[in-house]
């Protein structure tokens, strides 16, 4: 799988008129060679020429972190120690001289600026070169996404029973985090439980605030290889008509006029023309709506292309 990805990335690089790519640790490196290495102050990078063999340029101090991927794929490795110039090693791996180069969008300026000086040309983002590869899924990738989606759906199905008045946001978040791992995800990327006034902050995380009857609660969760979803949990309130509140939310999520709905009417699957998937979970105490923006995080990263926007019709692209 990784060999095919490297070959396809090299071909796309050539088609883009670039001499090569320089990929530092992050989701692009994980996608191309399976490495989960992190980036530090010392440069570590995959150098992928448009024509030629890929090479890992890594500090000797961190060599062990990359050897599993290097051995599995037969990658060349060039190590360096403090006092060496790793950016010159990258330039040499690309043939030397000023060459048009693409870099991963997660490369820190700490490495980008010295690399630009060594190449004598400012690199461009490799995003356009790699985006198509990541959008076009092989059957195995689609199956993996289905499994991940089913796992996170099972977590979401448990959310309504956790939203009990008297519990704190932190209590609910802890239970959700435990459920994410229990359902098969390798770790928890983030959990957001924003109740009442905290619901206005989409990146609130969670706090010791106690859930109150009638609160609107925003729950946003994610884990590696799972879809990132943003369900909005609604409860009856004394100051608003719950059904009207639900209809307004559905109109926002679907980008179209919603039919007359009660809180427990099923609204899944939506028409193909809708902008986001809308799911209604019946609940005895607090009914729930989940609005999912497809593609916002399915794969190596919590947020990545492709994303959705108004009037976009979502479809899987198959290899």
UniProtKB/TrEMBL annotation:
Domain Peptidase M24: 144-223
Creatinase N-terminal domain sequence ranges: 5-136
A Pfam family annotated for this UniProt entry: Peptidase_M24
Protein name: Metallopeptidase M24 family protein
């Amino acid at each position: 799988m990784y060999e095919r990805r490297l070959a396809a990335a090299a071909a796309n690089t050539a088609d883009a008129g670039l001499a090569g790519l320089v990929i530092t640790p992050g989701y692009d490196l994980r996608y191309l060679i399976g490495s989960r290495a992190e980036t530090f102050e010392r440069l570590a990078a995959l150098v992928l020429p448009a024509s030629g063999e890929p090479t890992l340029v890594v500090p000797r101090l961190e060599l062990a972190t990359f050897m599993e991927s290097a051995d599995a794929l037969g990658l060349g490795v060039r190590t360096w120690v403090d006092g060496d110039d790793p950016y010159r090693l990258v330039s040499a791996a690309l043939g030397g001289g000023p060459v048009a180069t693409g870099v991963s969008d997660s490369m820190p300026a700490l490495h980008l600026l010295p690399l630009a000086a060594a190449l004598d040309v400012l690199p461009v983002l490799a995003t356009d070169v790699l985006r198509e590869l990541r959008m076009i899924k092989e059957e195995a990738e689609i199956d993996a996404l289905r499994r991940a989606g089913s796992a996170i759906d099972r977590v979401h199905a448990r959310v309504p029973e956790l939203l009990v008045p008297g519990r704190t946001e932190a209590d609910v978040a802890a239970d959700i985090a435990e459920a994410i791992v229990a359902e098969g995800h390798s770790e928890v990327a983030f959990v957001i439980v924003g109740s009442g006034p905290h619901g206005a902050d989409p990146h609130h995380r969670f706090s010791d605030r106690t859930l109150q009857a009638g609160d609107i609660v925003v729950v946003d969760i994610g884990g590696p290889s799972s879809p990132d979803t943003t369900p909005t949990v609604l409860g009856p309130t004394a100051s608003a008509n719950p059904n009207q509140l639900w209809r307004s939310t559905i109109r926002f999520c679907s980008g179209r006029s919603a039919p007359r709905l009660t809180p427990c009417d099923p609204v899944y699957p939506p028409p193909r023309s809708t902008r986001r998937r809308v799911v209604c979970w019946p609940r005895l105490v607090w009914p729930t709506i989940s609005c999912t923006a497809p593609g916002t995080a399915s794969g190596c990263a919590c947020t990545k292309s492709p994303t959705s926007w108004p009037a976009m019709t979502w479809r899987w692209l198959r290899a």
